[in-house]
Design a protein that fits this description.
7-stranded mixed β-sheet; 24% helix; 21 helices; 803 residues; 29% strand; alpha/beta; 6-stranded mixed β-sheet; single chain
Amino acid sequence: MSGHRFETGGRIDRARPIAFAFEGRAYRGFAGDTLASALLANGVRLVGRSFKLHRPRGVVTAGIEEPNAIVDVVAPGDRRPNLRATEVELCEGLAAVPVNCWPSLAFDAGAVNSLLAPFIPAGFYYKTFFWPGWRAFEPFIRRAAGLGRAAKAPVQTRFEHRFARCDVLVVGGGRAGLVAAAEAAGSGRRVIVCEQDVEPGGALLWNGRAIEGRAGPDWVRDRVQEIGAAGHATILTRTTAIGSYDHGAVGLAQRLADGGIRLWQLRAGRVILATGATERALVFPGNDRPGVMLAEAVLQYQERFAVRLARRAVVFANNDAAWETALALARRGAATTLVDVRRGMAAGDLAGLAAAGVEVLSEAEVIATHGRKALRGVTVRGADGRTRRLDCELLAVSGGFTPNLQLFTQGGGRIAYDADAATFRPNAAPPNLSVVGSAAGETAPATKAHWRVAAQGKAFVDLQNDVAVDDVSLAVQEGFVSIEHLKRYTALGMGTDQGRIGGLNGQAILAELTGRSIEAVGAIKARPPVSPVPLGAFAGRARGALFQLQRRTPLDALHRTLGATIEDYGGWLRPVCYPKPGEPEADAVRREALAVRNGAGLFDASPLGKIEVVGPDAGRFLDRIYANPMSSLAIGRARYGLMLNELGVIIDDGVAQRLAEDRFLVGATSGGAERIGAWLEEWRQCEWPELCVLVAPVTTAWGVVTVSGPTARQVLQAAGTDIDLSGEAFPNLGVRTGRVGGVDARVARVSFTGERSYEVSVPASRTETLWRALAAGGGEAAATPVGVEAWLLLRLEKGFLHV
């Protein structure tokens, strides 16, 4: 490893070596390494294969924009697919495997696709596989699709959710972000800073620049202490803002130290975006070979991780920022050549580069790279057309910088193309959103727009999806001249990197091929999530038994002692039936249904929705909810009703009871109770706020036992009640209160079976007492426990509506 790692420098902890494995081979790195930096420090250049053509690929960047170094991290019984090696923190025993290759990374059978490239151009899947039919090809296409492999067993990764509010959210913990956060915290506001790296500071941690007379890391340390001293500010590291929404809502994905993911749903009074800018690649033949990297990433690997990337290096650029990389490489002993497409470079700059030992070739461009699975050299063409081969193991490229404005546009901001800076910049921002630092273009280096090199060979615009200049040209020929159509036809910008390093290049090439300006072509709409997030993060802990919380009735334990078969009905665990030993389920359902027809049955109706609607305008409110009027209902009476949505479609049904002049109890189906409660509250708050009415769901507060059948009256009388059950005193759809089985109860004479029925409602804690009292009768007062299936059968036999 020493041949590829400097003995000094960097922010790694050499006192803490770490063992890890990649594709089954053992390596060693240090605490503070990422998987990508550790692989580079071990001389590993080939790390992946491209999606379509399976071309050899190496590490290109040092952050979330990485298109090539995609890996699956594996552990016994667990697998985390499609992680960027640039973000995977090295830990003891880490095991990673490359994706999209078989049988191995070095010898990938899929590489035959490179030979078939002329037959599988952009959009080929829209034009082929028609004969003998799609299904003949489907198994092979699906097997080839995707990059990593999802785990077959339930993943062990910890996912959780958190909700928060703050006055100011600062996205980005670099120089601009820390300045904004310190200012906001100093004014007494609650501040949250989210930084996607393992520590705040951004490039100040490794670019060697001084700020305010102090070394970058020292300045960062002081600012972080200043923010923390405010007492009402929080800095979240390893946290990426993945989406910006209306009214200051922002989604954050935080990587936890144990590999888990915490998804934050945050609402801020003001959002300040200090998201920085991403360096662009340059488009030239052979620009995908392992050893071709972005110049800023080269600087970071060398200065932050102390990785010796090459002893011979070429820097190819169209802007001033790449000179910093050339100087840094030369200072660390690499024989360095700077190839700059521009002419007329300042004499002072040239003198500084020459003094550091950097050879400068101006008005020149790289037209080819050489080597098989790693870079061995490049061919450079000068302004006079002459070519020259330079031997090298590293080609650092820089095509300028694109501000990271994905969150800005998602939040309602508008952008405009700045020809002088050769990039898009913020143009108009909504009131609660602002952009600072390099994301606003404040520190953009002098850049010459140079989108592609005109030379023979495959020049890639999108590295992950193998989108080349030829593919963009073919799309134009076939009429796909909208930037969004181009994206979908060629897959430009549809990879995990979301087109960060090549998207603007693709837009510029489309503009050139169609004779339009870049502004006229426009930018691809960035949709959330800004950076890939495991699907499990959105589910959180709602997995397995927690995916849908299953509710139990107050009689759940009693049903089980009675031998009931329990299943889920609308989120409630309820008795299917009560089979006797050896009795088939179908027979048990038939027996229970006959018991209700011929005698009496006891049914646990506790899950039926119960929603109290209270207030002087309760009747008027319900008239607008039901298809039939409810305000005319007399006190102590019930009425069946249908609920319709705005389109006149039935969405629920049930019985409404009028308990007092200003109090109704609305019945709903067990599966729709929660939904209907929220629906009523939405209408109350949003559409009819002038009505004086309160909506209160009380489903779980009451237990309900329904006695149904020809002998239902005798069952209630045997249990003991002070309610007059005669037909004259207690007619159908009547509601009475009194005591049943020694428990205060509300009884409604409502039937869903077609037989005489009484719904007896008691406080949930007294439901078992009521059931036992009703079940204690014998002879004509005997009642049979009845499950849901028999109840549904009885209801359908009578032709009653079932929503």
